[in-house]
Amino acid sequence: MDLTPLLPQVRDDVSQGLVLLKGVRLVLCLGSRAQVALLMGTPARILGAATTAAEGLALVRQHQPSLLLVSDRLEEGCGVDLVVQAKRRHPEVRTLLVVSQEHQPALIQAALRAGCDAIVPESRLLHGSGLQALHTVIGGGMYLDRSLAGVFRADQEPGAGHERLSARERQVLDRVVRGLSNPEIAGELMVSVDTVKTHVRNVLLKLRVSGRIQAVVTGLRLGLVDWPRPGSTR
Fold first, then answer.
1. Contact in structure between 31 and 51 (CB atoms under 8 Å)
2. Residue 133 CA to chain centroid, in angstroms?
3. What band does 54 get if pLDDT is binned at 50, 70 and 90?
4. Of 88, 100, 170, 175, which is most buried by a Cβ count within 10 Å?
């Protein structure tokens, strides 16, 4: 594939990405040594870099980064397993997973169940999705690329087995999917933060999930909310 037409966008994305990464404490765990070398050459604050799952987990434990950037394919081990272990032991660490095995939905769903904050297909990195994912996850939101929609196709009718959400609860869930925080949701809907918290709690109860990430996955899978439009996360 001739990527020459994408060069202006890529340069702009890289420039914006470096601005976003300013002050972010970053650990890399990527299967490609070339990718690691390229990122190590940027002014980003990289605390450690590895190419195996065991080394990546050790770096997370040692440095307690604010962001872990990991690929699903590593020289040894699996990036999804690394995300699962990192989130289990250090849930405060934000995680961005780059997947090359898009045809394996079980891996992607395992990462989501573990609480992965952003998932981007490798094939979409040069089409703006990488920057959008970085912007969302650093801002505290959750990012799932639209090309992963097939992962959430349900075998059941929307809403089957779950209590129906009210119109306001759907509005709140829609904004959770877009990566907005409770204060931002309150501002958009012109209600108090406490009211938003109540709606979020009710959504979790009705969808029978334990957290916002699981609510996003379930809402998308059941068709209760739409995928965010490109650029609409903020």
1. yes
2. 6
3. very high
4. 175
Q: Extract the tokens encoding 229.
A: 């439009």
SS3 92: coil
Q: Which of these three, 152, 167, 201, is where a domain ends? A: 152
- Tally of structural domains, the chain: 2
CA distances from 78 to 102, 111, 201 (A): 14, 11, 34
129 and 216 inside one domain: no
Q: Is 120 helix (H, G, I), strand (E, B) or coil?
A: strand
- Residue ranges making up the domain that contains 69: 4-152
The CATH code of the domain that includes 210 is 1.10.10.10
Residue with tokens 């190419």: 51
- Give helix then strand counts, H and E, for the chain: 10, 6
Q: Per-residue pLDDT tens for 64-87?
A: 999 999 999 999 999 999 999 999
21 & 126 share domain: yes
Residue 148 has pLDDT above 70, yes or no: yes
